[in-house]
Structure prediction request, 602 residues.
Amino acid sequence: MTHPALTAITQRITERSGDSRRAYLQRIADMRGDGPLRGGLSCSNLAHGYAACDDSDKQRLKLAESANIAIVNAYNDMLSAHQPLGEYPNIVKRAAHALGCTAQVAGGVPAMCDGVTQGTAGMELSLFSRDIIAGATAIALSHNMFDGALLLGVCDKIVPGLLIGALSFGHLPVIFVPAGPMTSGLGNKEKAAVRQQFAEGKVGRDKLLEAESAAYHGKGTCTFYGTANSNQMLLEAMGLHVPGAAFEPPGTPLREQLTIAAAQRLCRITALGRDYTPLAEIVDEKCIVNAIVTLLATGGSTNHSIHWIAIARAAGVIIDWQDFSDLSAITPLVARIYPNGSADVNHFHAAGGTAFVIRSLLDSGLLHEDVNTVWGPGLRHYGQEPRLTGGGITHVEGTAASGDLDVLRPADKPFDNEGGLRLLTGNLGRSVIKVSAVARQHRVVEAPARVFHNQRELEHAFERGELAQDLVAVVRFQGPRANGMPELHKLTPYLGLLQDRGYKVALVTDGRMSGASGKVPAAIHLTPEALAGGPIGKIRDGDIIRVDADTGELSALVPADEWQARTQVERGSQHSDFGTGRELFSHMRRAVSDAESGASVF
Prediction:
């Protein structure tokens, strides 16, 4: 039986989204045609569309009787997670040919790595890359040559961008095809310890690089549970993968068969067959709620409190941070994966992984079972695991018991009774805080503010010994309008060290933290942002700030009349909107919505 609060929250979202959802579905209905869409192209259009194909593919495309699959690829060989995708188009084409279908690489989309750009000017392009990717996906699919799409991408902004773009072509069936995580290297706890030692000056850059290289050492996604791996968990819960595809490593026979299965399943669910399953009929209110619940249950990335709002709106569904907070209150935390624990995603996968999580949540009434998926009606498919059989795959029931209760637990015996993502409100605006990795004694901080306008200022203040006290670090002018809302992951070692030394420490910012948000309480995504006149621009050094994750309060404890009389601080001239391509994104900074609306330019 579905949890009554889950039903009520979903109904609230459905009612709120009524007009926008109907308008979206009508737009999608208007795009559908009879038979393959390429049948409506002129002879000249069609000739351009298959000019480079071999003779057998040309014949299939001329007859317009079988499916032609679009491959939208985020491949590049700089991203470890995307490097394996270079081989996928040929695998997909062979798999499609085996069913009498065809496949074409419809286009590529950019894919940047937040791990490479953290703390640099390039990070200011990261969030906006999501909407660029969405537009690039639409360009790839705009030729109307295709009956379905395989989306090849894994990492932070890439999966949300691909999905937003594909939702504009919601009449097409769509399946995501991941590459899987790299094998385990240096443990996350050990890596974090070296980072803190470097911040203290106890080890040099050579030791730091040695540790980082031992952690990030091969093909596949980074193995901590950040935004990239949260993407994969959520796609399983939304029914957009081959079941169990998320965390099989690259280069294995099973990984290749999962890719083949995705291509062949897509051929079977186009409008040319009996099992037509368009994307628009999968991504609905229940699907979005399932994604959020699974994010919360596994302690996933805070970035998705922005990305999944933008994805939902692309499907005509309106959600906000109150929905996240209310769902968090009823969602048990069932996984401990770094930064919420010491295990990596390979350990999580071995302990039971996505199938265990989804089945356990279904059994507890915390996911909607009556949904459409690419594998057929009902979410129960995703409680199964793939196995190699006779040159292909078959699915079997996932394990009924966790392989490691320190990593993965059933929903009725969780690590915590709530998911740990909470809404904070007060005279500073609206913010979110992730507390699943924050010890209970650190969840309430009331301390003097120390105000910074960028990460480097805080780093220098730490190095000068100025931060050895209880404090709330306020880092402003980091919102989407100011500089594209970069992640502030570089702050983590410094604030973590201060907390370890016994000080009460918190962060308040209109910027983002990464999917690795950890043990220091961080009120992030603060809206309105400083550049939009948000109250964070009124804070002065020494103001007492209260960050209370227990009651949901975020306030400057300044007398009301004084607070009202204060004016906003100017941004200052130390920031540059130029260099590293930032000048090319000025139009996006002017047009972007606030974080709670998805930080989108659409």
Q: What stands out?
A: DSSP finds 22 helices and 14 strands in the chain. Residues 8-183+218-397 form one domain. The radius of gyration is 24 Å. The mean pLDDT is 93.
